[in-house]
Design a protein that fits this description.
The chain has 539 residues and is mainly α. The protein is built from 22 helices and seven strands. Strands 2-1-3-4 form a four-stranded parallel beta sheet, sandwiched between helices. The protein has a three-stranded parallel beta sheet with strand order 5-6-7, with helices on both faces. The longest helix has 27 residues, at 512-538. The structure holds iron/sulfur cluster (2 copies). One iron/sulfur cluster is lined by residues 88-94, 111-112, 167, 169, 171.
Length: 539
């Protein structure tokens, strides 16, 4: 059981009241700190060590000088950062817009207060007024207490950018949060979760550390599952040279529920449309956690794996699966990070989203769809923050909102939108984005999910919604974990391509009755196959 109070949701209107501001409700030590060996893999300083008998670490030598040096480097490198630090007029429009503030009431989780943690130090060391009249302009010395506050509260920001939508100056707290984390990375306060995961991508190619053989085995298993389910031989190709499409998808799609059902959906769409595609074992990860820690160098290193995979396999285009921040990094930065992609077919945009393949096929009637197969569900859709506020889809403004909804409505008969104050570009983050999706931040995750849970409860109770679809691996993982705290069940979260997968009728697909007849055989065959594999391993 949680040792903190689980927020309540009423479902009355779908929108929560602004909480009364409290102080220090979320004070703490922040997430687990990255060990020196994880920092080394990221090319960050490693001259710090564990304090004996504790789970914490020292800071690096001369940490203060090095932190200020990094801040100076970042404000000069990214002019937007300095502008954001300079122009806030404290109008307060952003104060009640953050899901972590709404869920925790902690004053430091108001976006402007979160920004001020860094801004006060910036003013003290990099502005005339702050140097000579610090008290007058709210400037603060950089101390170890300040560093602790940064580490704690910048890991209570999922970099979702909701606050920036409401700021009259467009100040992006996410960029300030990324800069803060990058400074922390350089003084021995990296976050274990993000750096450990990126280390695996640099070494093996995916967040899970799943090697080529295990990936091939997993994909083979999925081919068997689809064949048993439909009777059709749908391929999940790996490292296929000369394929037209390289699919880059989050590694959660290979094993987690409901992600894997989405992967089956992409494969069925490609199969039915006769598209020649492949996955890559070298670039078997869509996620790019480099963005979360604000590290351009690490983001670039991960993006370059995709370029190399595309060149080695000789593909014509790159398509991304359902992952929010992966699509943001791809849509906004892939060309800058790893371009030019002039070796790809110029007929297609670089990159493309899998929904940009599926939606035109549905419009052209090239996929045989039986919507009634999803009739046991009434769907709603969660706009993932990185997609909603950091990207587009298709060739019309707002495509990132319309295309997923259009696809859901094309494969399901029952669809309801949530309260409009919580959707489209005003969407609330799931509470687990931006490097927060780790068990050591469970309280932050549960409380941060409250605004979305309120909106979901409203449509559940007033409009009969049974399931919520998402197109982000982090949203799916976060919701399946936190949704039970609010009285829902894990299986109420679905992938959009899972809905496509259920509704699509493949050429040569068996009828429902034939499939029912096969179900027993399927279970038996699966059991037998497992026994054979066990026996083979034992020998
Ligand atoms: S979590 Fe989102 S809304 Fe909250 S401060 Fe960060 S970017 Fe702004
Ligand atoms: S809305 Fe913008 S200008 Fe106003 S307080 Fe927030 S960050 Fe500052």
């Amino acid at each position: 059981m949680a040792d903190y109070k689980i927020p309540t949701v009423t479902g009355k209107t779908g929108k929560l009241d602004v909480p009364k501001v409290e102080h220090g409700t979320m004070e703490g030590t922040g997430p687990w700190i990255s060990k020196p060996e994880f920092q080394e893999a990221m090319n960050f300083p490693t001259d710090f060590e564990r304090i004996e008998g504790t789970t914490t670490y020292t800071l690096v030598d001369n940490w203060k000088e090095r932190a200020l040096e990094k801040m100076d480097d970042l404000r000069k490198r990214y002019r937007s950062l300095q502008v954001y630090l300079d122009i806030c007029v404290k109008c307060g429009a952003c104060t009640d817009k953050c899901h972590y503030f709404i869920g925790t009431a902690d004053a430091k989780n108001m976006p402007v207060a979160r920004q001020d943690l860094l801004r006060k130090v910036y003013r003290r060391y990099f502005t005339f007024a702050g140097k000579y009249f610090p008290k007058l302009v709210g400037a603060t010395d950089l101390t170890e207490e300040v560093i602790d506050d940064w580490y704690n509260y910048y890991h209570q920001c999922s970099q979702c950018r909701r606050c920036s939508v409401f700021c009259p100056y467009g100040i992006d707290t996410a960029e300030i949060s990324m800069a803060a984390r990058e400074i922390l990375d350089h003084i021995g306060r990296g976050q274990k979760y993000c750096t450990e995961i990126m280390g695996k991508v640099h070494k093996i190619g995916n967040n899970l550390g799943l090697p080529q053989a295990a990936l091939a085995d997993t994909l083979e298993g999925l081919e068997e599952d689809v064949e048993w389910e439909t009777g059709a031989k749908v391929k999940f190709p790996l490292d296929k040279k000369g394929a037209d499409i390289l699919l880059i998808t989050p590694s959660a799609d290979f094993f987690a529920e409901p992600h894997v059902d989405g992967l089956m959906g992409y494969a069925k769409v490609f199969h039915q449309a006769g598209l020649d595609w492949t996955l890559s074992s070298y670039a078997s990860e869509g996620a790019n956690f480099g963005m979360f820690i604000g590290s351009y160098e690490n983001m670039r290193k991960i993006a370059l794996r995709i370029r190399k995979a595309a060149q080695d396999l000789g593909v014509k285009r790159i398509v991304f699966g359902e992952c929010g921040h992966a699509w943001r990094v791809a849509y906004s930065f892939l060309n800058t990070l790893a371009g030019p992609f002039d070796f790809l077919d110029p007929k297609y945009p670089v990159p493309q989203h899998v929904l940009e393949i599926t939606w035109p096929l549905l419009q052209e009637g090239k996929l045989n769809i039986d919507k009634s197969r999803n009739d046991e569900m009434t769907l709603t859709f969660h706009d993932s923050c990185n997609i909603a506020r950091g990207t587009r889809m298709g060739d019309k403004p707002g495509g990132q909102f319309d295309i997923p909804r259009n696809v859901i409505k094309a494969v399901c008969n029952n669809y309801v939108d949530m309260n409009q104050d919580t959707t489209h570009d005003a969407t609330f983050c799931c509470g687990g984005g931006g490097g927060i999706l780790t068990d050591d931040l469970m309280e932050v995750r549960v409380k941060g999910a409250q605004p979305r849970m309120e909106a979901l409860k409203h449509v559940t109770e007033h409009h009969g919604v049974t399931h919520m679809a998402a197109i982000c691996a982090i949203c799916k993982s976060q919701f399946t974990k936190v949704i039970p705290y609010y009285g829902f069940t894990m299986d109420q979260i679905v992938s959009v391509h899972q809905l496509v997968s259920s509704a699509i009728v493949l050429t040569g697909q068996l009828s429902e009755d034939e499939i029912d007849d096969m179900e027993l055989d399927y279970d038996e065959a699966k059991e037998k196959q497992l026994e054979e594999r066990e026996a083979a391993r034992a020998s």
